[in-house]
Every structure is written in C-alpha cells, then in structure tokens.
Amino acid sequence: MTAIPDITLNNGQTIPQLGFGTYLIEPDDTTVAVATALQAGYRHIDTAEMYGNEQEVGEAIRQSGLDRSEVYVTSKLSNDAHRPDDARRAFDESLKALGVDYLDLFLIHWPLPTRYDGDYVSTWKTLEGFYRDGRARSIGVSNFQRRHLRRLRGESDIIPAVDQIEVNPYLTQTELRRFCAEHQIAVEAWSPLGQGNVLDDPEIIAIARRAAKTPAQVVLRWHLQRGDIVFPKSVTPDRIRDNIDIFDFGLSAEEVEVISALNRDERTGPDPDTFDMI
Ligand code: NAD
Predict the structure, then answer these.
(1) Is 51 one of the annotated active-site residues of the chain?
(2) What pLDDT shows up at residue 13?
(3) CB 3.0-4.6 Å disulfide test: which of 30, 89, 177, 213 passes with 217?
(4) Which helix (H) or strand (E) holds 36?
(5) What does the alpha-carbon distance between residue 35 and residue 126 come to, in Å, rounded to a whole number?
(6) pLDDT per 10-residue tile (average), the chain, 278 residues
(7) In terms of C-beta density within 10 A (0-12 exposed, 13-18 middle, 19 or more buried), how is residue 198 classed?
(8) Any residues with Cβ below 6 Å from ligand 1, and which?
C-alpha cells in the first residue's frame, strides 16, 4: 500500500498530500474513474459544484465500501452562489449531492473581485458558519491572490486553511506560495500537470529518463517535494495508477531547482483578478 503523506492544516486537521481531481470528468465517467482511484489507493477526492459530478463522486465513495472517515472530500462553492443565502443553499445541495453529512474541506471556488460589489468577505463569513457548525471540517479559498487573502485577514476571523491555485513548472507562483507559507495557508496546486502541457518539456523528460519514471510522475514528485498538495486528474486507469506511484523515488535538490527554473508565469487557466464567469 502506498504511503501518502498527510499535511497538517492551520486548524490541526490533516489532508492527504496527494488526491484525485475530477474537473472535466463527465458525470457518466465519474463513478468508474473515482472507483479506480480509490482502488489504486487514493483517499482524497477534489470535486466542485461547478464540475457537475458531485453525485457520481458520492456514489463511487459509497460503492467502495470505505468508511466516510477514510476518504477526504473537498467541494467548492459555485460562482453563482456567493451571496450568503445562496451560499447556504448551495452548501446544503453539495452535501446532498455527495450524500454526506460533512465535507472535509469547502472552498470559495473563485474570488470574483469584479462581481458581487467585490464582496467575497461576506461569502467567506458564510463559510465560517459551516466550519463552526461542523459541517465543513476545514474551509479555504481557491484562486485567491495575495490582496484577496490580506483582505480576509483584516476583515474576518478565520484564516483559510488552504488556497487552491494554479501551479505547474511553467507557473511556479513564487510570491503567492511564499505569502501562503508565511501565513500558514497550505497551497493546493491545481492542474499540477498543466493539463498535460508540461509533459513534453525536454528538461522534464531528461529527469524522467534518469529516474526511470514518467514525466507526469516527475512533475507530481516536484510538487510534493515543494510541499504543495496535488490531485492530478485522469480517466485512464493506467495513468490513475501511475500518478500515485510516486513514493519510491526522489528528486535531488538540484533537479527540483531545474524544474522550478522552467517558470514562464504562464497560466493555462483564467486570471483570478479578471475572471468573472457565473
Ligand atoms: P491536470 O494538470 O491534472 O492534467 C490532467 C490531464 O493531464 C489529463 O486530462 C491528461 O490529459 C493528462 N494526464 C494525467 N495523467 C497523466 C499521465 N500519467 N501521463 C500523461 N498525461 C497525463 O489538470 P486538471 O484536471 O485541470 O487539474 C487537476 C485537478 O485540479 C482538477 O481535476 C480539479 O480537481 C482541480 N482544478 C481546480 C481548479 C480551480 O479553479 N480550483 C481549476 C482546475 C482544476
């Protein structure tokens, strides 16, 4: 059995450092993909209301026969539900769709600074309620930039346990990751493989050859050795198994540096400062 390290969050809760992502997995494919991941040893599933597959994620967890407490489940607030009443309704609906009575982690999916009069603070305070009533064991944010995090610090009670942000070898997020480290906010690296874009990089291929591993395994190992939490996505059973088979090798400090030096500040996803899709 693969030993996946736990990361301790700023509220004392722990999260498996490697999980399984479900963005762009069609509902019809989700139960099988998540079941394959659970069989391969993943115990952390990342979903979101906006992925439209929470129900199927819940189904796979129930079918696995694992106890609810053995699987770490994250979901996220839909962009169209930031107002407090909508957020409360959306949270109830996520629990219902997943068929669970608590989430391990619930996130504001996007800050949407140009929507809702820029008021992501009221939204955050609503999540604080879910944390206080125990239905969210941890709460956090996603795609928050430093100024958004600073504002939450100044205007609310609870520091987010995580910030889930886009990170890959072409987008190393040095300043935001440093800010998070200084404020005990764990970083979750979304699209850790750059949706596959970084896997043809010659430096990564060379390191993979030396390690007798695949480029995807090398990139995931790079994230883990930097301390970030990752949840690669695949619907291909061999890749699902490959992406968790990363605990029998290590990268040298120099190899980690070579990969970090590939940074181009290049996003594959939207810019959180301007993204406003509802
Ligand atoms: P990813 O970086 O995990 O890349 C997934 C793609 O990489 C796959 O579709 C496949 O084409 C390829 N791939 C996966 N494993 C491979 C392997 N072993 N070998 C070769 N190719 C492989 O991209 P992602 O799904 O966008 O991100 C991972 C997860 O992060 C998502 O599923 C989701 O849970 C989360 N996410 C969150 C946000 C957010 O705004 N919070 C945004 C995007 C993704």
Answers:
(1) yes
(2) 98
(3) 213
(4) helix 27-40
(5) 32
(6) 89 98 98 98 98 98 98 98 98 98 99 98 98 98 98 98 99 98 98 97 98 98 98 98 98 98 98 97
(7) buried
(8) 21-23, 46, 109, 142-143, 164, 190-196, 199, 214, 216, 231-234, 239, 242-243, 269
Which atom of ligand 1 is least distant from the CA of 238? Answer: 18
CA distance 122 to 117: 11
Tokens 């969210």 correspond to what residue? Answer: 136
- Using the structure block, give the residue that is written with the tokens 């906006």: 50
* CB-count burial class (<10 Å; 0-12, 13-18, 19+) for 199: middle
Specify the pLDDT at position 269: 97
Residue nearest to atom 19 of ligand 1 (CA): 216
Q: How far is residue 190 CA from its own chain's centroid?
A: 5
Report the sign of the C-alpha dihedral through residues 33, 38, 40, 41, in that order.
Answer: positive
Task: Please check whether residue 86 is in contact with residue 123, taking contact to mean a CB–CB distance below 8 angstroms.
Answer: no
CB 88 within 8 A of CB 57: no
CB–CB of 138/159 below 8 Å? Answer: no
Closest alpha carbon to 260 in 187, 160, 170: 170
Question: Residue 214 corresponds to which tokens in the numbers above?
Answer: 């695949």
CA separation for the pair 259, 206 (Å, rounded): 11
Q: Residue 33 has what pLDDT?
A: 98
Closest-CA residue to 15 (of 100, 103, 91, 101) = 103
pLDDT score, position 2: 62
| Whole-prediction pTM | 0.98
206 membership: H or E segment, kind and range:
helix 202-211
